[in-house]
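Field reference: sequence -> structure
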Amino acid sequence: MLAFAIFVVTLVLVIWQPKGLGIGWSAMGGALVALVLGVVQLSDVGIVWDIVWDATFTFVALIIISLILDRAGFFGWAALHVARLGNGQGRLLFPMIVVLGAFISAFFANDGAALLLTPIVIAILLRLKFSPPSALAFIIATGFIADTASLPLVTSNLVNIVSANYFDIGFGRYAAVMVPVNIVSVLATLLVLWVVYARHIPKTYSTSELSAPESAITDPLVFRAAFPLLGLLLVAYFATEPLGLPISLVTGIAAVTLMAIAGRLWQGGHGAVVSVSDVVRKAPWQIVLFSIGMYLVVYGLGNAGLTAYGAQVLNWLGQQGAVIATVGTGFLSAIVASVMNNMPATLVGALAIDQAQVPAATRELMIYANVIGNDLGPKFTPIGSLATLLWLHVLAEKDYKISWGQYIKIGLLITPPVLLVTLLALVFWLPILPS
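Structure field:
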């Protein structure tokens, strides 16, 4: 009960953020209380740090890359291109926005998609003079695709990195499993969104108010460097896997390279358009504190018996066949994530799977089902993922208010079918994939 009480208070502070209290400070406060009261031991700090450090610094590096590209106009350019390619047809623009969100989520992580794409889409919707119901359809699509399309690469979601590192899954193996599954998730998301919002999507729109895509580019040098740099980064993930290099090191080198280009370090800062120092200041350093602090609090829950209970449930699911084991694990992870946030839920699921006595093939299905549940399942509630909280914060700043009740209603409508179809795709695909 003590471990549970510490977790609840910590989670409330993380979500509430009284007087602007950073999520990292709240999580570290909870961890300190857990240490003082003996819920976790000093030795647990090293264990947790070993689990989260690579994921955390990879995420920070990706967000730095995303912020620099955003300020250089990369995402604005892409969104304006999509709006023009829609050729004035609203029912073509809608799936194109979803696909754009899927690509950004895959390469810049779900938080980057929620943080960067949302305000750009809102700005375009205002230019196109869409009605409030029409605008809401596109905004909801942007928010949901950020998470439901965050499966394909290890780097597409913090959840993915933590899980891959915990179970020692290589970048190539992970992509081989999850890229096809992610395609199913994106298509299912698009289909469900279409069924729910098709009547609100305008048949036509005028492109006369749209600026030329090139007008969004503020730093041509950074913009030109983006495509080869991102291509090299993707190749480097695969090429360095046999060497055992941390993903954070590879991503960090790319981030530093882009910072050097943006800051024109070889010119002493001359010609720089993007303020690198401002980007570094605004990087999500609170995530570093949040990761170690929140995971320590959750590790205390595991020490108190939560992991053992989870392992018992997984043992039972593992006896029911591959379909039930996979779907059950995915939905269980989704429910836990929607209640306690997907970051701590990922660790709970990983620890439970590690303790579960199930066949190797079932265990592998459960590992990926836990990832899917923690990537997609958080959409049940506003507190399920940091990406959703970021998305709601961006909307509030743009005067788009979505109440928690309204969000949960939408989440319960859209998430279950997408989650189910995606888990079934995993059950079909993984067994036929060469090990």
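Note: The mean pLDDT is 87.
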